[in-house]
Hints:
The protein has three helices and seven strands; from the N terminus they run H-H-H-E-E-E-E-E-E-E. By secondary structure, the chain is of the alpha+beta class. It has a single domain, classed as Immunoglobulins (Immunoglobulin-like). Strands 4-3-6-7 form a four-stranded antiparallel sheet. Strands 1-2-5 form a three-stranded antiparallel sheet, with no helix packed on it. Strand 1 (52-55) and strand 2 form a beta hairpin. The longest helix is centred in the first third of the chain and has 16 residues, at 2-17. It starts with a helix and ends with a strand.
Amino acid sequence: MAAFMSFILFMVFTLLSKNTDLESEDYYKKEIEYEQEMNALSNASRLKEKVSINSNNEYLVLQFPTKEKISNIEIELFRPDNEKDDQTISENTSKTIMIAKNKLKKGRYNIAINYQIKGEKILQKEELMID
């Protein structure tokens, strides 16, 4: 009986000490904006040329379409296991954005690339592994 009670107490303390971050603090607000996000994803799927994401030893390189006029660029790097490692980068009209890998912790990231072409919102989502 004592072993069983010890096991239960161990499980309770173990589970309570786990970090369970939400994807975002303003989850409900984002749920309301879901339709706009779906439209932006649809707009991205219709593009002939998408944002290319390449990686070398030092940088994560994002290359935007060269034929279009890009504006209001916002890059969100989400770390699913720790929200403290999330990053947001804003640019105005750059065609190439380089993110230093030494500023990112190793592991999996979800990247959301928001930008506009001719006033139309575009959203491209990818999953990355940083080594």
